[in-house]
Amino acid sequence: MxxxxxxxxxxxxxxxxxxxxxxxxxxHADVLANDSTGHVNMLLSGLGVGQTYLSTVRxxxxxxxxxxxxxDWTEETAPVSILYPPSKKLNACVRVLIDWLTEYLIAxxxx
Length: 111
Hints:
The structure is a single chain. By secondary structure, this protein is α+β, with helices and mostly antiparallel strands. It has one domain (2-108): 3-Layer(aba) Sandwich (D-Maltodextrin-Binding Protein, domain 2), CATH 3.40.190. It has 3 helices and 6 strands. The protein has helices at residues 36-44, 54-63, 92-108; strands spanning 2-5, 12-13, 15-19, 22-26, 31-33, 74-75. The strands form 2 sheets. Strands 2-1-5 form a 3-stranded mixed sheet, with helices on one face. Strands 4-3-6 form a 3-stranded antiparallel sheet, with no helix packed on it. The radius of gyration is 17 Å and the shape is globular. Residues 15-104 form the LysR substrate-binding domain. Belongs to the LysR transcriptional regulatory family. Pfam families: LysR_substrate (PF03466). One of its GO terms (molecular function) is DNA-binding transcription factor activity. This is LysR substrate-binding domain-containing protein.
């Protein structure tokens, strides 16, 4: 298994899968990465199977470099927050970024 760990705490993040009300958590990984680039490179190198965001590997899936397994199991989606300093009027550039990011995430995170 190829997993993630926190660079700040060293904590390993478990892989969580759900199917028909059942949850399976896999806490052990044989190799670990602390960023998505390293994680994907480990997967592409054949070091094992792992769980990551679809948007991170979509191009590799489309090219046939990676394949999905356990397709009928789902993973928990991480929340996304956009934070900016309070003001009476939202900067137009910030508004454009928020709108674009929202559309991008909706289009690229569905299963």
